[in-house]
Amino acid sequence: MSTTYTLDTSTSRANPTPTPLKRLTVPAIKRRKFEGKTDEPLVMLTAYTARQAQLLDMHCDLLLVGDSLGQVIYGLPSTLAVTLDMMCAHGAAVVRGSFHALVVIDMPFGSYEASPEQAFTSASRILAETGAAAVKLEGGEAMADTIRFLTARGIPVMAHVGLTPQAVNALGGYAARGKSQEEHAKIVADGTAVADAGAFAVVIEGVLEPIAVALTQALDIPTIGIGASAKCDGQVLVTEDMLGMFDRTPRFVKRFDDLAGRISSAVETYAAEVRTRRFPSAEQTYAPKD
Prior knowledge:
With 290 residues, the chain is an alpha/beta fold.
């Protein structure tokens, strides 16, 4: 038996359905900040799997496939060992699991710093293999030419200034940045440089609050804070941190749940029922009459 399908030719080839999916776009995110203000802050969380994306998507404006997956998923000591293969695999899963939020994918350490051309090769691969809308890279003034090169070639870039985890060895740790006047001025200059280079938004991480406020007021593009200020144009957290999946919680994280505790309790109950042969019961097994 054969089935005939009728294609609605008024839709795009990428979405051959009568109602194409309405995913947020880079221009839509930029427009959320108008005349220096964002009336409704942008909501951003990390996502690494299709199922996680499904659960977060309806509540978020942006989903970040962060290189934090190195620590969260793979148990690595830092983000430095994360590869392009990892980012592409997890990025594609998150795109498949979402339909509303703009998906942004971190460019891993070593995939973009050597030259703008290297960055384009890496970024174009990420977007082609995942279907994501944008990439994120760390660094301020030093990366301005790279951001300019990418955006001129159709690759939207989210920047990242302040505490940049990929530079943890150079920074000497994960302490808040901007405590000296020199460092304060450098972070402000970095934020200004990436905005001027064409970034559509900038993550400000782990800085003294006045720096985040000053950048938010000075830049025309949205600022997304993490350990920064409620006055930023949006906020991002590692999802597993805000859900309470780890014992250690950074100061800038609010635990909105104790998911680790609830998982442990559920597994304890499961183990007890297996060991006492209460699971599986008749409800979970197949009788001959079935």
